[in-house]
Amino acid sequence: MSENYDRIFSICRRLAGNDADANDATQEALFSIVRKLSTFKGEAKFSTWAYRVATNTCLDEIRKRNRRPRPGLTDIDQSRTLSGNFRQSMENQITDRLLIDEAIAALPDDFRIPIILRDQVGMDYNEIAKTLSLPAGTVKSRIARGRTRLKSEIFGNKEETSNVKDVEQ
C-alpha cells in the first residue's frame, strides 16, 4: 500500500504544484478510492484504476481552489555573489527547475496533465490513456504538442533544446 500511496501523492504533488494542496488532494483521492471501490470492474490493473480515480479527484480539488498568484523568478536576487562552482551550479539547477516548473504550470491542462503523468510520475502511454479515458494516440499527440510548447516557452526561438526531452520519444 505504501507504494500506491507514494505514487498517488506523487501524482497529486505534481498536479497540485505544492505539498499542502497535494496532501489535501491525496487524502481526498484515498477517500474517493475507498468510496468507489465497488465500481472497480477488474478491466484494468487495480493500480491503474486507483491512479485514474486519484488523478480525477486531484483535478477536482484543483478546480475548487482559488487561483493564487505564483511567485515569480523576479523575487530572486540576481546580484548575489556566489562562492565556488558547486554552489553556482546548484543555484543554476534550481533556477532551471523553477523555469521548467513555471512553464509546465502555464500549459493548458490538456497538455500539462499527460506530460506530468509521463515525465514526472513515470506512467507509460497506455496507463495515461486509461487514467484519462483517452486513446493512446491522443495521449502521445498531447505530450508531443505540450513538449513543443515547453521548448518554445523555455527557449523561445533558440535552437538550444538539449535539456528538454525530444518530442519523438
Layout: helices, strands, pairs:
Blueprint: H1 2-16, H2 19-35, H3 46-64, H4 85-106, H5 109-120, H6 125-132, H7 136-155
Overview of the molecule:
The chain has 2 domains: 2-64, Rna Polymerase Sigma Factor, Chain: A (Orthogonal Bundle), CATH 1.10.1740.10; 89-169, Arc Repressor Mutant, subunit A. 67% of the residues lie in helices and 0% in strands. It is mainly alpha-helical. The chain has helices spanning 2-16, 19-35, 46-64, 85-106, 109-120, 125-132, 136-155. α1 runs parallel beside α3 (46-64) and α1 packs antiparallel against α5. The chain starts with a helix and ends in a 14-residue tail after the last helix.
What labels describe this entry?
mainly alpha; Rna Polymerase Sigma Factor, Chain: A; Arc Repressor Mutant, subunit A; globular; disordered C terminus
